[in-house]
Design a protein that fits this description.
Length: 98
C-alpha cells in the first residue's frame, strides 16, 4: 500500500511570553487564530527572503557577466532611459557597450 505524504507538516515554535502575547493580541484584533497569524508571518518572511536571495543572485550574475564581457551602460544612460519611462514614453533599453 503506497504511503502518501500530508499536505502540511506539524512543527513547534517556542516564543518568549511577550512575543506570544503580541501574537495573541494581533490574532484577536484580526479575528484569527494565533496559529494563522504565525503561519502567515512565516510564509511572508520566507517569500520575502526568497525574493531577496534571488535579487542578490541576479546582482552577482550581472557583476560576473560585466567582469567577463565588460558590457555596460553608464549611469547617465540609465538615468535618461528611466526618466523617459517615468514620463510615460515607450523608450528602448539603452545599448550596452564596452
Amino acid at each position: 500500500m503506497p504511503v502518501t505524504s500530508p499536505k502540511t507538516a506539524t512543527t513547534s515554535l517556542k516564543l518568549d511570553p511577550t512575543m506570544k502575547e503580541r501574537v495573541q493580541q494581533i490574532a484577536a484584533t484580526r479575528r484569527r487564530t494565533p496559529h494563522w497569524v504565525m503561519r502567515e508571518a512565516v510564509e511572508q518572511y520566507v517569500e520575502r527572503e526568497e525574493k531577496r536571495e534571488q535579487l542578490r543572485q541576479n546582482a552577482l550574475d550581472a557583476w560576473s557577466h560585466y567582469q567577463t564581457t565588460g558590457l555596460h551602460v553608464t549611469s547617465e544612460e540609465a538615468d535618461a532611459w528611466l526618466a523617459k519611462l517615468e514620463a510615460g514614453e515607450d523608450a528602448k533599453t539603452p545599448k550596452c557597450h564596452v
